[in-house]
Structures are given as structure tokens and as C-alpha cells.
Amino acid sequence: MAIIGLAAVTTTGCVFEAREAPVHGTLLVDWTIAGSKHPGACLDFAADSIDVIVRADDGWPVTEFGDYCESFAASVELSPGTYRLEAVMLDAEGVALTTAVTDRLRVYGWQTNVSAVDFPADSFF
């Protein structure tokens, strides 16, 4: 019975298509607080984490990601294109501590594309 099944599989003419992996670029959000990457800056402003929303150029949300404040960098893979990002610092409860810092950038495939943002002291509530 196994031989018959094998014969049926080999005579069906299955065709396998090779597909290229989609091209992506990496968006690296690199942040500072009042111009500093010192972990004490996070403590000074009670900032626990960052929340980043990435929107397509037309405003539609594409993804949301974040990391601990002390990391001072977080990344995500995106298809090539133009994006807008909005970033806010959050407290330990997940409540926004700042006004949104925004950036508009182009992501290129196979590259790390950096968005450097600073949360100045006056952006904190």
C-alpha cells in the first residue's frame, strides 16, 4: 500500500515554486532623555519604557513596539517605504509621561535605518 501511495505522489506532477524572501529593512529607534543616554535620566523622570507607533505615510498604523527606557534603542523590521513614528515615554503603570516625539523617515531594504529621537525635559508632563 505504501508503494502505491508513493507512485501516486510521484505521478501527480507536483510543482514547487521557489519564492524569494520579502525584502525588509530594520528601523532602529535610538532615543535620549534630555540629551542623555545615562540610565539615571530614566530614573530622574520616572520613565520605565518607550512606546513607538509606526504609521504608513498615509497615517494607517503599521506596528507598535517598545523597550525598557534604559535600553535607549529598539528595532523592528519593516518593508521599504516612508513611515511616520510617534514615540512616548511611559511610567511603570504604562501611562504616558511625555508628549509624542515624532519623526518621518524612509526605510530602505536590507539596511538599518536610524531614527534618533530626544525627549527634552519640557516634553515630560
Protein topology:
Blueprint: H1 2-10, E1 25-33, H2 39-44, E2 49-56, E3 61-68, E4 73-78, E5 81-90, E6 101-107, E7 112-119
Parallel strand pairs: 1-7
Antiparallel strand pairs: 1-4, 2-3, 2-5, 5-6
Write a structural description.
The chain is mainly beta and 125 residues long. The protein is 12% helix and 45% strand. The strands form two sheets. The chain has a four-stranded antiparallel sheet with strand order 3-2-5-6, with no helix packed on it. Strands 4-1-7 form a three-stranded mixed sheet, with no helix packed on it. The longest helix has 9 residues, at 2-10. 18% of the residues are buried.
Question: How many structural domains does the protein architecture include?
Answer: 1
Secondary-structure-derived class: mainly beta
CATH homologous superfamily placement: Carboxypeptidase-like, regulatory domain
Beta strand %: 35-45%
**Within the CATH hierarchy, at the fold level, what is the topology?**
Immunoglobulin-like
Give unreliable regions as ranges. Answer: 1-10
Helix content range of the residues, please? Answer: 10-25%
Radius of gyration from CA coordinates: 22 Å
Number of helices: 2
Distance between the termini: 74 Å
CATH architecture assignment: Sandwich
Order of helices and strands: HEHEEEEEE
Mean pLDDT: 91
For the secondary structure, the number of strands is 7
**What is the name of the CATH class?**
Mainly Beta
User: What would the principal axes of the Cα set say about the shape?
Assistant: elongated
Biggest β-sheet, characterized? 4 strands, antiparallel
